[in-house]
Design goal:
CATH topology: tt1808, chain A
Structural class: alpha+beta
Radius of gyration: 16 Å
Largest sheet: 6 strands, mixed
Shape: globular
Helix content: 10-25%
CATH architecture: Alpha-Beta Complex
Number of strands: 13
Number of helices: 3
Number of domains: 1
CATH superfamily: tt1808, chain A
């Protein structure tokens, strides 16, 4: 269940409300609206964790993979592109170390990531697809993934001008190589709870 406030506002205006939410709820300002939702369910948590573990070990740590990335769960992005999304937190994000050699010492990231991934839940699906995905394109994020544990799909997008072009949709237990991490095979079966 998603509760929305109809009036526009910024994160700073909603900060007190967000901080006062019980531990069973989480809040974000998406497209200028306060969106309160339940904490992620196990399928969401498992998919995000499994993806972070696989991509992170290969592309951040270089364990059997090329390395060269920072891969982080739920980073706070304060990109200065749109006050209605400042800050915003994707489920996962990655920066090429060639662009960002060191992690910032601040709580927020001012540099747009090279890749974001949103794990879809019933309470976040519409916001992730309809609000956050277009924002990421406007912010200059080159690659975006939407992972849906219920549908068992991975959708990948590449930035094309001000929007995204679909690279592909993979389902079920497929083994795939997907930009920008095509250097390694990803077994989708590991993302889903059996």
């Amino acid at each position: 269940m998603t509760a929305q406030q109809p009036s526009l506002g910024t994160y700073r205006q909603y900060r007190t409300i967000i901080d006062a939410l019980p531990n069973t709820l989480t809040g974000q300002v998406i497209a200028g609206r306060l969106v309160v939702m339940p904490r992620p369910a196990p399928p969401h948590i498992h998919a995000a964790s499994a993806l972070d573990k696989r991509i992170g070990s290969l592309f951040q740590d270089g364990d059997g993979g090329p390395g060269g990335w920072w891969i982080l769960p739920e980073p706070e992005l304060a990109l200065g592109v749109d006050a209605d999304f400042d800050p915003v937190s994707p489920d996962l994000a990655g920066w090429r170390r060639a662009r960002m050699p060191r992690l910032p010492t601040t709580a927020s990231f001012a540099m747009a990531p090279d890749w974001v991934c949103e794990v879809l839940s019933p309470s976040t699906k519409a916001h992730d697809r309809d609000d956050k995905l277009p924002f990421y394109a406007r912010a200059g994020v080159a690659h975006a993934w939407l992972v849906d544990p219920a549908a068992r799909t991975l959708e990948a997008f590449v930035r094309d001008g001000e929007g995204y072009q679909v690279l592909g949709v993979w389902r079920g237990d497929a083994r795939v190589r997907v930009e920008p991490f095509e250097a390694a095979e990803l077994d989708l079966a590991r993302l889903w709870i059996a």
